[in-house]
Amino acid sequence: MSDSTHRDANSSTGDTLRHMGTPQEPAYHITAINGLRDNYISARFRTELDVCHTVIAQVIAEDNRSDQQVARVHILRYLDLLLTRAIRWSDEPADLMAIILRSQIDLRAWAEFVAKGPAEAAQFLNEVNIDIRELHEKMDAAYPGALQPLPATIPGRRVPFDRADEYEEYDYKLCSKLIHPSALLLLHPDVTIHNLEYKWHLATEVLFHAWLILDRFHNINWVA
Fold it and tell me: Do residues 195 and 93 make contact, with C-beta atoms less than 8 angstroms apart?
């Protein structure tokens, strides 16, 4: 069992990674993603993630001018943390890279939602209260009477997200199969978490999603 599924950085969701420059001079991140896809080397993967780190450091300055800016800063901080982990786990089994990618897919959804406008950004910030309410409800059910009641009723429902396309749907399902103790993973670790082609595919998608999330907030515009 192996993974031969690869996407071009300019296709489907990849169209949103703007193709800067000229056809002869594609944007740096397009070249980096496609180059890693075509010739995966873990050292090259770490180097490319370091470039993402550098860009994040340049654009992540604290900014409280609006809900959108507050949300942007927190999303990019978490992306930076995920990339740090990806670098650390670059030579580990595929399930660790799957943890990174699945988190990035959820983070991509939030980045797109927040980028829509001020109302969406405010809704994102309010979801903190919904998270607290849900956790409180679960803890109260497990340990009745151990918690003080919440000071006020917290209304609202979670923002529902769909996968962006069939590529993301596949990646999310693959990550789930590798992260959870599925029958596939337990019975065939040699072709799941120790599958080099899965690992290379996931790592390339980690780089792809790093630039995709960055591009939601910043027009990354330079050529290699």
Answer: no
Q: How far is CA 199 from CA 3, 85, 181, in A?
A: 9, 15, 17
Q: What is the DSSP letter of 12?
A: G
Torsion sign, CA atoms 14, 81, 72, 163: positive
Distance CA 114, CA 43 (A): 33
pTM of the full structure? 0.86
* Residues 6 or more apart whose Cβ sits within 8 Å of residue 189: none
Query: 44-77: per-residue pLDDT in tens?
Result: 999 999 999 999 998 888 777 899 999 999 999 9
At 134, list the tokens.
């849900």
d(CA 209, CA 187): 30
**Domain edges within the chain:** 25-116+166-217
Cα pseudo-dihedral 199, 34, 48, 173, rounded to 10: -40
